[in-house]
UniProtKB/TrEMBL annotation:
SUPFAM superfamilies: Ribonuclease H-like. Residues 1-38 form the RNase H type-1 domain. This is RNase H type-1 domain-containing protein. It comes from the Eukaryota. GO terms for molecular function: nucleic acid binding; RNA-DNA hybrid ribonuclease activity.
Length: 100
């Protein structure tokens, strides 16, 4: 909001306004506050305890980490298998050519 006001040319006057004195904007704000107070609706974030939200975040992070680790391990196993295969082929070629 400060940046928005900062980019507007002109002057901004901030003044304290005594409540309930018939100022239209102030009366509208008071009316909106009273209506909201009568709703008795809790914000959505209070429907679940913070411990449950933390549990969900931990579970999702652990699942994502596990998935990345499985992918990494599969990659490493593939590299090791290829390396062993390459060593085996080289060993056979050396043996075939009489280099051993």
């Amino acid at each position: 909001m400060f940046l928005l006001l900062h980019n507007i040319s002109g002057t901004v006057e901030i003044a304290w306004v005594k409540s309930h004195v018939g100022i239209i904007g102030n009366e509208a704000a008071d009316a909106a506050t009273k209506r909201a107070a009568k709703l008795h609706k809790a914000p959505d974030y209070t429907q679940y305890p913070i411990s449950y939200i933390k549990y969900l975040i931990r579970t999702q992070n652990a699942s994502a980490w596990q998935s990345r680790m499985v992918s990494l391990l599969k990659y490493e196993q593939a590299v090791l298998s290829f390396s062993k295969l390459a060593d085996s082929i080289l060993s056979r070629l050396k043996h075939f050519n009489g280099l051993t």
